Amino acid sequence: MSGEEYDTDMDYSDDDCCYEDYYNHEDDFDAEQLDPSKSDPEHFVFDCLTVEEVERLLNESVETLSTTLQITPSLAKVLLHAHGWAIPDIIVKYREDSSKLLVLSKVKPPHSPELFASRQVRHILCPVCVASQASDKFSNLACGHLFCRECWSMHFEVQIIQGISTGIRCMAQDCEVLAPEDFVLTLLSRPNTRDKYQQFAFRDYVKSHPQLRFCPGPNCQVVVRAKEPYAKRAICNVCKSIFCFKCGTDYHAPTDCATIKKWLTKCADDSETANYISAHTKDCPRCHICIEKNGGCNHMQCYNCKHDFCWMCLGDWKSHGSEYYECSRYKENPNIAHESVHAQAREALKKYLHYYERWENHSKSLKLEEQTLQKIKTRINKKVMNASGTWIDWQYLLDAATLLAKCRYTLQYTYPYAYYMEPGPRKELFEYQQAQLEAEIENLSWKIERAETTDRGDLENQMDIAEKRRTTLLKDFLEL
């Protein structure tokens, strides 16, 4: 594949048009304006909240439970954190059997205030530091285990240094009673340590809340709140990160969270083998000259003999369209169950490499097409400077490039999905739709890279076809 070099000097920001921007402007389509929840399988209602807004939200829940059950806010936090902030469930359980609920939350009924008076103890031996001190120097949790305040304070500081906050337990052996927030803060004297504890506690509260998720973007403080039970694609309105709300990793539709975790683990374990077969260069199937892939499109044209072929299977591109599914589909060996153990192992590796090579190829194509997007921006900038139209006149080229990235991203994540699918009619349907999407993406990529000679109407029509293929596949196979 040959590509023209362009200047990279620009007088606008790289943020003018990107993959995230395309998702943020999906409502430009008329069909999605009517009812996004039905027309867009990735539609997901959520809010991006600041730390202050989340603190107010959590405090409202604490106040509600505290007032309803007539308990301290500190105990209310323990109960909410232990039971996923499900206030109705906690209220029902508490009213049915308060002692049972307290045991479930690892908090036992407190001792009588007359504890020390009844024992008439002036000095007590601390089990940790083995020092005898006056009883007013001791404190205890609901379990009644007494320790001097200095030992409590040291215990808390050690736990906080390790990043533990809501999980701090009593120092007594095998005691699982948790230390409430007010008890910890009362015994912490250093302001920095108190601040760290509150930060860690806030982190734990958010993580335990089913409707909240920290944005995984670097140094981003946004917390995303889901407004519906089935979490899908979330987009941070600050750092523009796109991620799966359910698991917090990179967005991976149509593959479900458990499957993508298995796939990424397998890729990490077998990376050396996969990298060995995933080469950057291949020989032209006609003239055998070495070709380096420098663009995202898999439709290759040899710069030497002008032969058109597929980068993945090296087949003739002219006959490739009608048989495209043969390139993306893995052909299972029907007799593999009767083969030797070594043969089955080789077949398993062959299958994995088939899917990994295509997964990795689309990942590389996405990076190469980012360069194409920058080149398009530069070309548009030059045209505008030369009075050859306005930015609005050439906006369709940017739209095409961002849509291509969106479609290819989805296509990349279809390969882990296909790898773990059981053979059968459903997999055949999936592979058919996958192949159709791949064919339209390659057509779109080919036309974008040759935008100077591509008719605008033809390009926009190809955009519409590619997006419809992507949406159809997700509607049929998106896993929640």
UniProtKB/TrEMBL annotation:
It holds the Pfam family UBA_ARIH2_N. One of its GO terms (cellular component) is nucleus. One of its GO terms (molecular function) is zinc ion binding. Belongs to the RBR family. Ariadne subfamily. InterPro entries: Ariadne (IPR045840), BRcat_RBR_TRIAD1 (IPR047555), E3_UB_ligase_RBR (IPR031127), IBR_dom (IPR002867), Rcat_RBR_TRIAD1 (IPR047556), TRIAD_supradom (IPR044066), Znf_RING (IPR001841), Znf_RING/FYVE/PHD (IPR013083). It comes from the Eukaryota. Keywords: Coiled coil, Metal-binding, Nucleus, Repeat, Transferase, Ubl conjugation pathway, Zinc, Zinc-finger. It is found in: Nucleus. Residues 434-476 form a coiled coil. It is an enzyme of class 2 (transferase). Its EC number is 2.3.2.31. It catalyses: [E2 ubiquitin-conjugating enzyme]-S-ubiquitinyl-L-cysteine + [acceptor protein]-L-lysine = [E2 ubiquitin-conjugating enzyme]-L-cysteine + [acceptor protein]-N(6)-ubiquitinyl-L-lysine. CDD domains: BRcat_RBR_TRIAD1, Rcat_RBR_TRIAD1, RING-HC_RBR_TRIAD1. Residues 122-331, 126-170, 287-327 form the RING-type domain. GO terms for biological process: protein ubiquitination. This is RBR-type E3 ubiquitin transferase.
